[in-house]
Design goal:
- With 308 residues, this protein is of the alpha/beta class.
- It folds into 2 domains: 8-259, Rossmann fold (3-Layer(aba) Sandwich), CATH 3.40.50; 265-308, no CATH class.
- The protein contains 10 helices and 8 strands.
- It has helices at residues 17-28, 50-61, 76-90, 113-141, 154-158, 164-184, 208-213, 231-238, 277-293, 298-306, and strands at residues 8-12, 32-36, 65-69, 95-98, 146-151, 189-197, 249-253, 256-259.
- Helix 3 packs parallel to helix 4.
- The radius of gyration is 21 Å and the shape is globular.
- The model is unreliable at 298-308 (pLDDT under 50).
Length: 308
């Protein structure tokens, strides 16, 4: 139970659900944990110190080490204080886990600017905010074995139709993770993303037919849907032993842990001179359609599920 001994970890959005499971699991493995949570509602309204404080109390009651932080990840200046909490309390920071998120679901033609901005601010900007200040520390210290773990979603990887803001933010986080993997490796930082699947407060707001279309199995039992199933690969990624893994997306859902493939061309048209518009009419469908027909397209599955 000491695989994270002497490691200092920040987990954002750790007051409930997956974040809380990760924080408690890391503490059980010996890490000192900063439990960050603003304590807002699913749509990001309000604040409450109780969720973060309760997780800290639970960790301490079990003999672990933890401190609460209630700052808002979407606030640039406040995010620096999240990092400062780890440095002030424990003198170092080894791992940052960006879990915090909200939902404001709407079809794109009904979505307001405020609904778009709020979700992007928490997920995408929030992930940048905390990483920015953590990376400054890591770049200065250069002691190695640092870990950045960002949370993406199948909604972004597959393009959930009722979540254009959330999907954009979550797929943006993948690109951000790749960028950090390339930029921060020289300072001893690995950067990876987790695509989770679990029964959480946020997930419970998504209609069953949409979750099914995204690949969720409605027959999974409560244990299989537990957020605790997401924590083990996150704990491993935070350890010193995971230094070989960088710039990857890991799926964690139920009793399954997956390694996603890297985006790459699946079919290429190679010419000897500039392509013309006529060439596109001649070759695009002929060469690409069979490849597209064999890829997973969420919208087609969703229409089939919903009978549209």
């Amino acid at each position: 139970m000491d695989r994270l001994k002497d490691r200092v970890v920040i987990v954002t959005g750790a007051g409930r659900g997956i974040g809380a499971s990760c924080a408690k699991s890391m503490a059980a493995e010996g890490a000192a944990v900063v439990v960050n949570d603003l304590g807002g509602s699913v749509d990001g309204e309000g604040s409450d110190i109780t969720p973060a404080d309760e997780v800290v109390a639970e960790i301490r009651a079990a003999g672990g080490t933890a401190v609460a932080n209630h700052d808002d990840v979407s606030n640039f200046d406040a995010s620096e204080q999240i990092i400062r909490t780890a440095l002030n309390e424990y003198g170092r920071l080894d791992c940052l886990v960006n879990v915090a998120g909200i939902l404001r679901d709407r079809m794109v033609f009904n979505m307001t600017e405020a609904e778009w901005d709020a979700v992007i601010a928490v997920h995408l900007k929030g992930t940048f905010n905390t990483t920015k200040f953590a990376s400054i520390y890591w770049r200065t210290e250069r002691q190695g074995d640092y870990r950045l773990i960002n949370f993406t979603s199948v909604s972004g990887l597959s393009g959930a139709p009722g979540q254009p803001n959330y999907a954009a933010a979550k797929l943006g986080i993948v690109g951000f993770t790749y960028s950090c993997a390339n930029a921060l490796g020289r300072y001893g930082v690995t950067s990876n993303a987790i695509s989770p699947g679990a029964g959480t407060r946020m997930g419970g707001t998504i209609p069953t037919d949409r979750r099914r279309a995204l690949g969720a199995n409605p027959n999974r039992n409560e244990d299989e849907m537990s957020p605790n199933n997401v924590a083990p690969p996150v704990v491993y990624l935070c350890s010193k032993d995971s230094g070989w893994l960088n710039g990857q997306v890991i799926g964690a859902s139920g009793y399954q842990v997956s390694l996603f493939n890297q985006p790459e061309p699946i079919r290429t048209l190679q010419g000897k001179e500039s392509w013309t518009i006529d060439d596109m009419w001649t070759h695009m469908e002929k060469q690409f359609k069979s490849a597209v027909d064999h890829t997973t397209i969420y919208s087609a599955r969703a229409r089939e599920e919903q009978g549209n």
